[in-house]
Design goal:
745 residues, mainly alpha, 32 helices, globular, disordered C terminus
Length: 745
């Protein structure tokens, strides 16, 4: 386990799903063999058949990459840090973003051209102590409520479904509510009340729809109404969440407490209310207006929207499962990938019975979503979907009040969860609630130490970038008038690398906070942005938690990959339109979304052509196939850079993108005889092809490495055989069960 954790944070999720066939127990020396194989990890990166030609090929590729890098940097458009700083200082607006007085490195000048990195850097001195205090209190609450980290012997016995069936303690629920509201007030000030009001409105509307869906029943019990209610609930989840975002983006700061409370005070005065009451309303409005935080509430509603949709859809799918089982039908699995479907033994085998994917798929009892239990459901049917006999009685007015208040408190604690409130990563409601009941077990001490070290390294790299290379200010103010087309292309590409470093440092920091709190959230940046040659794989690794959210709640319900290529392209385009609108409503991002959607067409077509049974499947067995893939990947990388330059690096100002592309592809300048950037493009294409070939070797090595470790861990993930007492208890339960329960089993 220790050797496995040191391989980058227990990457069992990266392994391929295994079959559902039972596996034999692991040998006693499986852990020793995994640790013994650790020094050979680098050798796993080389091709399987390590011949002299392979040595020459790898050496030639590495030498070509090094030579082309030096040739580009030493060309006429030299691309060094001192020149970038000089170009920035030559521009008045760019020079105003450099703050030499805030640097703690020798000769550094802090770049304030990016608001996100600037806010993150300035908030770290307050964020770290606040996180430390909240972690200490959270660990104490877990110890009091009996939900501390379990012993190693309990990890094998527990599963995601058994954890989901457990009730959430009142102490834990109160702490989640208080910490969420308190941290939101600390960050947003009085505007956190507006965010809390938006969450409450969505909860009230969706809860009413869920209650109506429960009363109408399923497709058999309710007929047409039963079939229509899930669609109405889904529409309510999306329409209310997106409607609040549209209203917030439209009004923004015009939604003020004075605007809300002043008419109330006037109406109270007109109705004859005492003067002290109206004066209290006026003073309260002034106090709330003066207590606004440093960030507006609508800047964080985008992530809150994702959590509201997750809660509503998880609740609707859980209710549909209960109704289907109560009617004697099949369990309606939540839309997701096959590997993430509820009860998928393949996914549990790859990620562990308590891994993040298994917790996402495990539904909680209906009371966790504020829904009254269904009447007439058999005991076995309830157990199949995670109901628990340990839950408190839910009948009567008291049970309804407890269930309603508990669901609202849990939703507020989830949507305003401090480690993920400001920046993410995004996790589902099912997974968050499961981790609140029992902490994560994927990362041990060694895995947590490695994750913390990686986050610290990323933050230090971001700090060095902000102090020595002003990429953010250069791209923000267009201070690259002295650059030629080649240097502008390099600037756009390097700006994308800077974006990756910024987001990776921010997300890694908040992910460490969540992991130390016992909540496992996905790693948003699984790979460096430069280590990608496939558009599909790139978006799986860039903002991965958001990608998983899009797949679970949008792409798969639209049809996913089960439909034809044309429908897949249409669904992908719709997803990216939503992504662009979710980020911001501006023309550049809409153009970006359209370009990215179009770039999926050739990749989907090529994947279908070379897949088994495709008309080009025969090329997969040719010795030159890998090199052909590298050439196609080079074009793919270049095609991925252009829309991201347009959408994110702000190089589109003053027509520079059109000018850049014209000089690169047509002429180099005013002289028609100038070949322009054609030689540069050839060099870049060869460089990208060599890099893609190196990536293919790395991917092959990863598959062999994880495959070897997976073999050593197959028995570790297998459940222990039942004891004689457990078999006798199971036989006694089946003997006393009703015939209909046995039939449901």
């Amino acid at each position: 386990r220790g050797a496995f954790a040191e391989l980058g944070g227990c990457r069992r999720r990266d392994m391929q799903a295994e079959s559902a066939a039972p596996v034999a127990p692991a040998p006693k020396d499986a852990g020793k063999r995994a640790a013994k194989a650790k020094p050979l990890l680098f050798l796993a990166m080389v091709p399987a058949e390590w011949t002299l030609w392979s040595v020459i090929e790898v050496g030639g590729v590495l030498g070509l990459i090094a030579f082309l890098h030096v040739w580009i940097l030493l060309g006429d458009d030299g691309f060094w840090s001192h020149r970038l700083i000089a170009e920035c200082k030559a521009n008045a607006r760019c020079a105003s973003e450099l703050k030499p007085g805030q640097s703690w490195l020798p000769g550094g000048q802090v770049d304030h051209g990016d608001s996100q990195s600037r806010s993150f850097r300035q908030s770290l001195p307050q964020l770290v102590p606040a996180a430390a205090v909240m972690l200490l209190v959270s660990w104490g609450v877990r110890w009091l409520s009996g939900t501390a980290w379990p012993a190693s012997s309990d990890k094998r016995e527990a599963t995601a479904r058994s954890v989901a069936a457990l009730p959430l303690s009142v102490v834990q629920l109160c702490w989640r509510l208080v910490s969420a509201v308190g941290f939101a007030w600390l960050v947003l000030g009085s505007e956190s009340l507006l965010l809390l009001a938006a969450v409450t409105v969505h909860w009230a509307v969706v809860s009413a729809c869920l209650g109506a869906q429960r009363c109408v029943g399923g497709a058999r019990a309710g007929g047409c109404a039963g079939r229509a209610m899930p669609w109405l609930t889904t529409a309510a989840v999306w329409v209310v969440a997106c409607g609040i975002k549209a209203l917030a983006e439209t009004l923004k700061r015009r939604i003020g407490f004075w605007v809300i409370l002043a008419p109330v005070a006037d109406a109270a005065a007109a109705a004859g209310a005492p003067a002290w009451a109206t004066d209290a309303l006026v003073r309260g409005a002034h106090w709330l207006e003066g207590g606004r935080g440093s960030l507006p509430w609508y800047s964080m509603y985008g992530l809150v929207l994702l959590r509201l949709v997750s809660w509503g859809m998880d609740a609707q799918w859980a209710l549909a499962q209960r109704q289907s089982l109560a009617e004697g039908g099949e369990t309606a699995a939540a839309p997701s990938k096959a590997a993430d479907a509820p009860g998928s033994r393949a996914r549990e085998g790859a990620d562990g019975p308590l891994g993040h994917a298994a917790r996402v798929a495990a539904a909680h009892p209906l009371a966790a979503y504020g829904i009254a239990p269904l009447a007439g459901a058999s005991a076995s049917a309830s157990a199949a979907v995670g109901a628990s006999s340990a839950l408190p009685p839910s009948g009567g007015c008291l049970g309804c009040a407890r269930r309603t208040a508990g669901s609202w408190a849990a939703l507020v604690g989830y949507t305003l969860y401090p480690p993920t409130l400001a920046a993410g990563p995004v996790t589902t409601y099912n997974a968050w609630l499961s981790h609140a009941k029992r902490p994560q077990t994927t990362f041990g001490a060694a895995g947590l130490a490695g994750t913390v070290g990686r986050a610290v390294g990323l933050v230090l790299c971001l700090e060095a970038l902000m102090q020595y290379v002003p990429f953010f200010s250069l791209t923000k103010h267009g201070a690259y008038a002295g650059f030629g087309p080649q240097a502008v292309v390099l600037l756009g590409y390097t700006a994308i690398l800077s974006l990756w470093l910024k987001f990776a440092a921010i997300w890694a920091t908040f992910r460490v906070w969540a992991l130390l709190d016992g909540v496992e959230v996905p790693d948003n940046m699984r790979r460096c942005v430069a280590n990608n040659f496939s558009l599909v794989d790139f978006w799986k690794a860039w903002h991965r938690s958001y990608n998983l959210w899009l797949v679970r709640y949008l792409y798969v319900p639209l049809g996913g990959s089960r439909v034809g290529v044309v429908r897949q392209v249409a669904n992908t385009a719709l997803v990216f339109v939503f992504v662009a609108l979710w980020h911001d409503v501006n023309p550049e991002l809409l153009v970006w979304g359209g370009l990215v959607g179009l770039l999926f067409v050739p990749e989907f077509a090529m994947r279908a052509a070379v897949a088994p049974g495709g008309w080009l499947a025969w090329v997969r067995h040719r010795p030159w196939y890998r090199h052909a893939v590298a050439l196609v990947a080079a074009f793919n990388i270049f095609a991925m850079v252009v829309p991201n330059v347009v959408g994110y690096t702000r190089l589109g100002e003053r027509g520079s993108v059109r000018s850049m592309l014209w000089q690169l592809f047509v002429v180099g300048g005013d002289d028609p005889a100038d070949p322009g950037g054609a030689p540069f493009l050839v060099v870049v294409f060869v460089l990208l092809a060599a890099g893609a070939l190196l990536m293919l070797w790395v991917r092959a090595g990863e598959e062999r490495r994880y495959g070897a470790i997976k073999e050593a861990w197959r028995g570790e993930l297998a459940p222990p055989p039942p004891t004689a007492a457990q078999l006798a208890a199971t036989a006694a339960v089946r003997a006393s069960a009703a015939p209909e329960d046995l039939k449901d089993d």
